[in-house]
Design a protein that fits this description.
The structure is a single chain. Strands 1-2-3-5-4 form a five-stranded mixed beta barrel. The protein is an alpha+beta fold. It is built from five helices and five strands, in the order H-E-H-H-H-E-E-E-E-H.
Length: 150
Amino acid sequence: MQTWQIVLLVVLAILAAGFIALLIYGNKLQKKSQASQADIRATAQTYSILVIDKKYMKMKEAGFPQIVIDQTPKYLRRAKVPVVKAKIGPKVATLMCDEKIFDLVPVKKEVKAVLNGIYMIDVKGVRGNLEKRQPKVGFFKRMARKFSKK
């Protein structure tokens, strides 16, 4: 065998071993995530809330308690998270929302929300179903549609 063939085989073997290691590590993280989601769902409660406002904000700007900010990993403190301001009974609270349901949360409407502490897991409409808003279409997509119709 020539040297370039040996080098190529060694590189392919290292890549295959790395790929297998990533698969094993990914499966382990997925199982851990599913277990934590099950724990969150087990202790969640349903509340009737009035959504005042929703937007993506940094954790420090959102007004979360200091203990929540301290428990968050440092690399996530500067990231923007989905935040919902809602009135729960007589009290106005700032809630962190799940990414999957953030688009379903209507503003200035009453909903039934499944909460675990300040984390909103699920949302259901009190009066009727919630409709998912259509995503905004960018300038170039609008122009492409306009020219494709002609």
